[in-house]
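Researcher: First entry.
Model:
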Amino acid sequence: AITTIVDGVIVDLNGYTLTHTATGTEDCFINVSGTVNCTIKNGNILKSTGTGRIIQSTVNSCNFTLQNVNFNNTVGNCLNIKGNITSDRVSKFISTSTGVGNSLGSNAGQNIIGGNYYNLGTGSNTCSGNVSFSYFETVNNSNSTTQKTSFCDFVSVSGQALVGSGQYFHCNAYSATGAGANIAGASCTADFLFAESGTAQGLEATGAAIIRHCTGIAGTGGAGINPALITLNCYAESATGLGMTTSQAGTVIEQCIVKANGTTHGIQNNGAVISVFDCTITVGSSSAYGIVMGAANCYIRGNTIKGTVAGTKGIYITTGVNQWTDTADAQGNSANL
C-alpha cells in the first residue's frame, strides 16, 4: 500500500496525479483496524497495475471526506469503504471491474453523501448505507442500494440501473436495455422515483410495499410499471408493452395515469385478486382494453378509459366478477367488502 491511514490525516494532492504502480495486491490507502477520520482532496489518483483498490477500509466507524478528487482504477475496484463518506458532486470514483467496483457503507447507521461512482467493467456498484446526492453508473451490470436513498441518479447501459430494497425519495434511474429500477421488499417504498428503460420495464416494483408519485416509462418490450402492493398517484407508460401488469394478490392501484401506446392493454392482471380505483387509462388500439382481469374476482371503480371500444367500457374480466357493486350516494361515497 502507499500508506496506512492514520486518524486525522489530511492528504492534499495540490492538483497533482498520484500513480500507483504496484503489481501485486497492494491497495493505495488501507485501514483494517481502528477508527480513522481521513480527508483526501484536490487531485487525482490513478491505478493501472496490480489487483488492489484505491481505498480499502473495513472498519465501520471511519469517516472519509473526499473533495475535488478523481480516483481511477483501470484494472479493478476503486473503493471498498465501510463507514461514512462525505463527497461533492464533482468528485469521480471510477473502477473497471468484473466484481463490485465501488462498495460503500455496510449498515443503516452510515451515510454516503455526494460523489459520482462508476464501474466501466462488467461488474456492479453497491451501497449498504444511507445515500444521498450521489450518481451511480455501470456498463453491464446494476447499481444497488439497501437503505434510505434520496436525490440520487442511476444509469446502466445494459443492466438494471437501480436494484434495491430500501426507501427511495426523489431518485432517477435509466437503463438502455435493462429495467430502469427493480425494487422489492416488505419495507421497500418509493416516492417520486422516475424509472425509464429503452427496451424493458420502466419500474419493476413487484414485492415492494408502496410506491407513490412514481413514474415508469418503457420503450419497447416492457410494461411501464409492475406495481407495488399499494400503487398511488403514479404514471406508467409503454411504447409497445402493457401500461401496468401484475400477478400479486391484494395489489391496489389507485389514482394513476396509465398509457399503453401500442396494441396491448392498459392494466393487465394475471389471475390475482386486485383493485383498480379512479385511474385514467389510455390505450393506443381500439382492440385493446383499458383493464383486463384474469381468472379471479376483482374490485374496479371510478376509472376513465380512453381509446378502446366504448361499448365494452374498456374492461374485460375473463371468469371472475367485479365485486365492487355498490352505487355511490349523492356525495360520491360507496363501499364494498
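Researcher: Second entry.
Model:
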Amino acid sequence: DEENGLLVHAIDPDAAALFAGGEFTWPFDNNGHDLAPILDTPYLLELDSYENRVHLLDASEPDVVRRRGHLTFDDDPIAGWGRGDVAYVAFDSDQLRALDVSHPGNLVDLGAVLELRDVRAFLPEGDHRLWVSSTSSDLWLLDLSDPAAPQILMHQWWTGSIRGLTRVDHYLILSAYLSGLYVLDVSDPLEPVLVNQVTGHYAGGTAHHGDRIYVSSNFVDGVTVFSLADPTQPHEIDTIPLSGPARLMSVHRDRLWIFGGSYYGQTTVYDLLDPDPTPPPVLVIGGLGGAGLAPLGDHVAVGDTYIYLVNPPCREITAVEEGGRVPAPR
C-alpha cells in the first residue's frame, strides 16, 4: 500500500527476538482492528470498527501483505468468519451479512441475510453448517448449503454470555460468562441436549488442544486449564498465571498463543508438547496485546494499531527493508 506501507514482524522463538521491516499503519493510535480467518484461502478479514469498514487482506506472501479491497457500512463490524468464496460479518446492528470474496479486489455485499444479535463466536460444523454464539446467550446452528443465503436450523438460549465454542467428539462445550461451561450432546445438532454444567468460573474465550481446553476470563487474571479426558466431565487441572486477563487465545501448531495477560499489553506463547506440566513460556513480547487474532498457514496474524505476521517455527528470518529482502539478525 503506497499510502500506508507495510509492517511485518517475524519471531525467532529460540532467540526470543522481534524484527520489523517497513510500516503498515493506520492514522490513529488505537487497536480497533479485529481479524477473522477465511478458511482454505490466504486471506483475512480486517474488521475496522473505527471507519465501519471491512477490508480483505492478502497474506499469500507475508512480506508483501496488501489490502485487496474493502466495503464501508453504516455500522460497526464486530465479528467475522469465512470459508472459500464467502465470508460472514456480524454488525453491531444485529445483522449478519454475507460477502462475496471470490474477487479479492472487488468485495460484494450479498445483503443483510440474518438478524443475529451480539454475535461473538463461530465454529464450523462439517462443510455446510456453522455454530454461532452471542454475548446475549444465544446459540444458533446455520445451514450454509447455499453460502450466499444461510438459514437458521436451530436456536437455543442459555444463561450467561457465550464467548467460546469447542467441539469434542459429539459434544459442544459453551464457555459462558457467569455460567461456566455447558456441555451439550450434539449427536443430533438440531436438538442439542445438556449433559453437564461446570459452574464457578467467569468463563470467556477458549482454545482447544488434545484433551485440554484453555479458558480465559475478562475478570480473572490468567488462564484456567480443564481436562477433557471425559468430555462430559470437564475438570480444572491447572492454571496459567498471568499479570492480567487474557483477551484472545489460539492454538496454532501445538503452541498456545495468549494475547493480553497484562494490563500493558503482552503476547505469551507456550509449547503444548512440553512434558513439563507447568512449562515456562517459550516467548514473551511486551507491548503487543492484540485486538484480533487469526492463524494463517505458517503464521499467526495479530491486529493491533499495526498488523503483525508472526512465524513461530521459523529458523531463518528475513525482514522487509526499503523494498528488498535482507537477512535479519538472529
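Model: Note on the second entry: The radius of gyration is 19 Å.
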